[in-house]
Amino acid sequence: MSTLSPVAVARGVVLLLWLLALHNTLAGRALFWDGASFLVNLLDHAHFHDFYAARAHVDWVTQAPVLLLAKLGVRDTRLLTMVYSAALFALPTAFYHLALMRVRRDPVLLTAVLAIVAAVYLPTSFFIVGEYNVAFACITAAMSIVLTTDGRGRGDAALLLAFGLLCLRSYEAMIYLGPLVASAILWSMRQSDDLPTRTLRGLAALAFVGSALISAITIVDYWDHPHFMKVRSTSVDFWQNMQFSIPLAGFLICAIAGVRRPAWLQGRGPMVVMGVIALLLAISPWWRVVHGPSILYPPSHYVARQAAGMLLAALLAVMWVQVARRDPPAIFVVVRRPEVARRMMLALAALTVAAAVPDVALTRLWAGYIERLRIVVDGASGLVRAETLPLHDWPNKLFFQDWSYPALSAVVSRTPGRSYVVSDQDYLSNPPFEPACGLLPRLKGYGWRR
After folding, report:
1. What span is annotated as the signal peptide, if there is one (predicted)?
2. Which stretches within 291-440 are classed as H helix?
């Protein structure tokens, strides 16, 4: 492994990400939680499910392939599920692909992008329907372009503008990510005297600033909405996501030790810490064998997304400082040393591979869950009470969401409408964030084909 070059590491991780995207597409991961309700609303109403203006651009891009196929007459919900999954996974994967290729010759920047993939994307992407997955990936790609260009390339400037327009209405985290990237873009313009390039970059920076304004307005408007109040109250529970908290612990240990004594980074300490962290992460799917409560819990991906956004901002800021500061803090001086940067890169590459293990394990459990639910709805007629099913058995308890059960059971049925799985709840204690979600879908003419 010591002979691996930064280019080889970047290419290897890119291949890994695309293989994961393919695996997750075939398993229909888009249906997890809110995804099933989104899909049935798309098909029943034949238009974009852009219920939320601040995230509309991401919704349009990821939902367009499904609407196009439905308009062309495709009625196989299994195929449409895979197409929806492919769109949701392909976009962030393409952005991370671009980011990795842009930083592939700089071990320090490559290490930071690997950290983002391992500790931000993979630990929060089981909830792939969440628009933050695309927003975070796009921001990473944008910063990678800014930090690896001389400021004169019109192609790069055009890409940044396109990314800014996508992020303009992508996710509320743009309230702090937007100004960060906009500032970096303006900083990168200092060397450019080409008017078209400066204009494109200026417009891109303006788009990212606009994304922050739209996010701020949205947060104010929805501040007292019951769903968003619940979201705020659970945002501190990110520690429940072991796939996120394990690598975060490793980062904190290395960062604190490195700041206190930069010379520590030159020894074996960081490799030992990150090696242990990678091992713990890789075996995390089986912790429950020895300690029942220690489970990987897919809904915690949703809970950890705010903390992941803050970690992303910190890593992007570190990337910028590493490039911009000619007189950086002592810890950056040490990190820039070729032997230290190389060891860090290899450690984070190993962590990324380890982070893929729980992703694959959970996806396999999800595929089995979908198959069991399909057998239930195809063998029943009328309403099936969710409480009569083994909801709390392993691994069903990992994926159950009461208000989205009608949509999920309709999508996987060969004859939607013949039977639905519904939960005994009043929709007050755990309400859908939108009235259209949680209703019994029609899906007339559709069906899950084998």
Report:
1. none
2. 299-303, 305-324, 330-335, 338-378, 405-411
